Amino acid sequence: MEYRDLLYARDGHAATITLNRPDRLNAISLAMLASLSAALRQADADPEVRVIILTGAGRGFCSGLDLKDMGGLFAGGGAGGGAGRFDLPNSPPVVLHTTDKPVLCALNGAAVGYGLDLALGCDIRIASDQARLGAVFAKRGVVPESGGTWLLPRLVGWAKASELAFRGAMLSAEEALKLGLVNAVVPHERLMSETHAWAEEIGSNAPLAVQATKRMMRLGLEESFEANVHHVFLQLLPLFASQDFREGVQAYLEKREPRFEGR
Which of 204, 219, 250, 252 is 20 to 30 A removed from 144 (C-alpha atoms)? Predict the structure, then answer.
């Protein structure tokens, strides 16, 4: 499949999606919006893919929506304007949120506005020491429109989310690490090798179990403890019948590394 303003590559069990407008610091174009949703769906549906890596080309991760490229999409306001025709269910933040495969974000540079929301929508964020995270929406007269108002309070708590969003804060990689917005900060030249090492470790585990765990955690954000325990039990039943479960038990008894096939 061909994509515009985006690169897609698979290496082993990892699919790498690279935002590819380095001359615009990977600002999101209309073509990239469609390509990103399609690439995420392709990786999620590919049985050979167990982990997805999202990163940017050049010196930035994503500088936000490219307002020049968007043209009049959001002009006019109201349901009759361009925003009323925007396909939210198939937009990257929604597709990203419902993707079952684990998504690692390799933050190679600045993630600002929409780029910040995109990074926060990933499951794990590994940042270059040159990365910066910018919640600058209030400085542009908008809200965190692509999941940020839902994600940020859940990641750092209400008070800290309010501070970042209301002040339009720009954070260094180390500041983001202290807040728990990124999982690790590594030297810039080691970013992709470190991210691939994490992806390989995750990919070596039973993929059905990893994906089920992600689904159960996602459900758990919206339901009671009792409901989640019930859903987890129901999820266990098909896992107990899987070949991977039998392999995991056998490998443990034989004191060897398991060889999971996703079945």
Answer: 219
